[in-house]
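request received
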Amino acid sequence: MTLQTTGSNGNDHKSSVPAEIDYDDPRTTRFEKVKAAARQDGVEIVHYEPQFPERGSKTEKRMTRTVSLMFLLVGLFGTAFVVLYIAWPWRWEQGNVLMKWYTPLLGITLGLTALFIGFAILTWGKKLLPREVSIQERHDGGSPEGDRRAVGQTLAYMVEELGVKRRPLLGLAAAAGLAPVAVVFAAPIVGGLIKNPHADNQMFTTGWAPIKEANGGTRLIRLTREDGTPIRPGDVSAGGQMTVFPGIPGGASNAHADSPTLLIHLRPDDGAVARANNVKGTGHNKFSTADFMYGDFIAYSKICTHAGCPASLYEQQTNRLLCPCHQSQFLITDNAKPVFGPASRSLPQLPLAVDDEGYFVAKSDYQATVGPDFWERP
Amino acid sequence: MKRRKIDVRTLPAKAGNEVEDRLGVATPLRGIINKVFPDHWSFLLGEIALFSFIVLLLTGTFLTLFFEPSMKEVTYDGSYAPLRGVHMSAAYASSLDLSFDVRGGLIMRQMHHWAALVFMGAIVVHMLRIFFTGAFRKPREVNWIIGSLLFWIGFLAGFTGYSLPDDGLSGTGLRIASAIMLSIPLIGTWLTSSIFNGEFPGEIIISRFFIAHVLLIPALLVALISVHLALVFKQKHTQWPGPGRTNNNVVGERFFPRYTIKQAGFFMAVAGVIALLAGAMQINPIWLFGPYEAGVVSAASQPDWYVMFLDGSTRLMPAWQINIGIGNGYVIPPIFWPTVVLPGFLTMLPMLYPFIEARLNRDNKIHNLLQRPRDVPQRTALGMMAVAFFLVLVLSGGNDVIADKFNISLNAMTWAGRIGLLLLPPIAYYVTYRICLGLQQHDREVLAHGVETGIIRRAPDGRFYEVHQPLGHDHEELEYAGWVVPKKMNRLGALGPALKGFFRPIERPAEAPVSPGHPPIEPAPERREIESKH
Ligand code: FES
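response:
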């Protein structure tokens, strides 16, 4: 590599060889030393101009005052912040107006404190320090040719020395032996996380599955309110609806997130339409829904078949159920089939009956899969 | 004993030498403080992201001191009376405590959330700047890729963080996320049940999200941001073309002192704005949403803005379900396309773009000079096409709110979104392309004929014409240099620069800012009379 020599005026700053400067020479000013130091990094300060041509000019004084004022404001707002933080009533109390202002006041005083620090520093830097224009050379294109060759040769030499080419068995054996090691590292990390989604048939059962009793019989699950109380047909008036949960321990909790169900009492004419459509079926279902209704009562899963939000907005006039998440709409009187939006599957219907004590029960679990769709849903 | 005299003035030098003897920092330090940075307002956008990230780290650390990442059921008995006695997860209860029973906790929570919104916003705007000015070209492709990764990792950070309080809204978001994972063919159910440790919602997801949100994702962010900055440092910043600026130099200010000072001030300003936002505008009032219950949702619940485009794409997607009739039958649900496939494209396409463009232009050169968007009409138009696509999706993400506010039917909004998504991007492309060409042509006209002076003259034959001030000497045509062409007389110094100052003019108005930071133009030796040319 050849070194280029620099012109003494430093204009040719392509070279990285600086003009030496004697830092102890009292005849050069400190700025000249700074310039020389910059030149060592290929930086030429081509323009350096104080903001105020005469020292102590009126503008300079005004700027100084402005910056000082900002710092004083920092102190003011900062103090205000601390005082408010300590003294302002902050605990939540019904109807306490003062406490509502606690967080806004903290934010505003803290924000103004930081803003004024920022403005003060910015103004100081931009308006009081000299303006400068410096030019620095770029050195694109990577390392010098010599270095590239040096590294390349060294690496190539090392590969030769390892001698995999001459001893192919070694390479093969190493590759074959090390391949499982990757799995060794991955196994404990990934393996512990993997969980079979089909354990207990969990994708296809909900809290409504009838419980097998010790004596061999099965108990049907009651429809209950959130507090666990069962529901009689008389509790829902015609045109009304109610969210119901399986009457099992924790049935309304998130442990049974796929079980919330919407029980709707249709008006008689709608009920007739719905029943007729139930008999017809949807064509998708491989089972009959003919006797799923109880009178004019119909119950559908509340968990949207699109992405699992609760489809909970019931429009009485049109008998549509709207899901608020992506606005899929399901027609209640026709097997809750999707009529608009991104959902592609009907809401599963819960077969209803009334037990000896007059309470609603589910005749069985949902026959269709509840909730968002997935690959292996039959 | 003789008293040793301590010369205070030599102390700093002495201390410096002591440090130097041990660590040898002077040489690298010289390089750093001498480093030249170009200046332009658009170069600050990335900094906003960086600074809000620092605010995020600081406020987030505070929040971890109080938050309890557990789904164990507890009964709330904190200060907030309306929820007292309600069963909820410990995560939600501790988030309420952070808001009501930790002094100043709410302002920290709100600052954290606002900083996240600002962070993501700054990333997007910064990336638009990079894209439209061609700053991603060789040698900076790697930094562009890191930038787009930062967006997606920031997205994950936002989502996991938003889910932690386990309130009514975040639970719904989590539910949708689980449905998105379920929809992936073949592995969907396995992936979901592995992440949730069983069926949704399970009992561990909050703890897992917590460690992801406070350790794994931030570590990744810090690592990528460090590399990002190191590369900016190593490759030196791009600059706009202008007098004295070439592809082989950087014209600007040295790192120390002015650049550093401005950065410090700017950081405080960004932090101040975040604090003001957090104080003045309530965000994510979790106490109003109640604990998450699978059967309850409130309408018009909007996710954070950077998630809305996915919400929009999900809403617009028609109900196209693919059934595969083998064996028991398999399904690809419609939600798979807008939430898995689309983001996949949106991740890969931008990352590959620098290479695609270089390939098409057969361009293997190193570029350190930025391009004005108008000078590369195809790229600018493509970018606007993407922006239009994104905006339609974002608006559709809030289409129920729009429908409600303006009394439009929801179905009409959905259809408008579907059609708009197909129609608006090409229109945006065409319009942008034409505008770019128009701007280009105007630049060339001014260079050829001069600046409009506003002086109307009447020719002897009665025609009117406007006097133009040519820019070159002797009516020569100037070549376009890739930078702003002065189009007003005061830009030429002919009328004197516009007065600056808010209440009163600042004494010495700045030089005509043909190109910020370049050496001021020497005043022309003789001022030429305004001449006409037409
Ligand atoms: S979750 Fe119901 S429409 Fe998407």
